[in-house]
Specification:
The protein is an alpha/beta fold. The protein has a single domain, classed as 2-Layer Sandwich (Alpha-Beta Plaits), CATH 3.30.70. Helices cover 34% and strands 34% of the residues. It is built from six helices and seven strands.
């Protein structure tokens, strides 16, 4: 039997990802807490009214209903793929709360993220174009762009580095 230790793996690979653990029994609890202690962004997906919800929250974990946790993880993967494909980089993503009225959709679940990215003007233009025209319907709101160097130029050049913040909403199909 091969035994693996911390030195045998690269934790940075998973730290760059958003992880959804479905369930908080003995295995879900152990995996979620270990990943969180290692610096990984973890959300626990639970049924509404689950008795494990308070326990997971008391351990400092984000908790969401299962469809919302899965949809949010998928949306974060989609946006990361678009951003990286266009040469920009994700600085951070944060899941935004969904109102009860929005969450009662029958076919699609609205999922919203606050996204912060960095890239050249050309990379940002390509990224925003792909977000707006992709196969998944993604909606941008509250877009703020700033020169990442703090400079005040009236006309940005194509190699100007920009910090871009925006809210992103998608209506993800609900799967049973």
């Amino acid at each position: 039997m091969q035994v693996y230790y911390d030195k045998d793996c690269d934790i940075e690979i998973i730290k760059a990802k958003k992880v959804a653990i479905i369930g908080y029994g003995s295995q879900g609890h152990a995996h979620a807490c270990n990943l969180q202690e290692s610096g990984v962004d973890v959300t626990v997906g639970l049924r509404p009214g689950s008795s494990s919800r308070a326990k997971a929250e008391s351990h400092g974990l984000k908790v969401a209903d299962v469809p919302e946790a899965v949809a949010a993880a998928e949306l974060q993967r989609i946006i990361k793929d678009i951003v990286v494909e266009n040469g920009a980089q994700i600085v951070s993503t944060q899941i935004l709360p969904t109102s009860q009225k929005q969450a009662q959709q029958e076919v699609f679940l609205p999922v919203s993220l606050k996204v912060r990215l960095r890239g050249t003007l050309a990379d940002v233009v390509d990224t925003l174009y792909d977000i707006e025209t992709g196969e998944t319907f993604l909606f941008l709101d509250n877009v703020i762009m700033r020169d990442s160097t703090g400079g005040r130029s009236t006309r940005a050049k194509s190699n100007t580095k920009l910090d871009v913040n925006f809210d992103l909403t998608a209506y993800m199909p609900i799967t049973s």
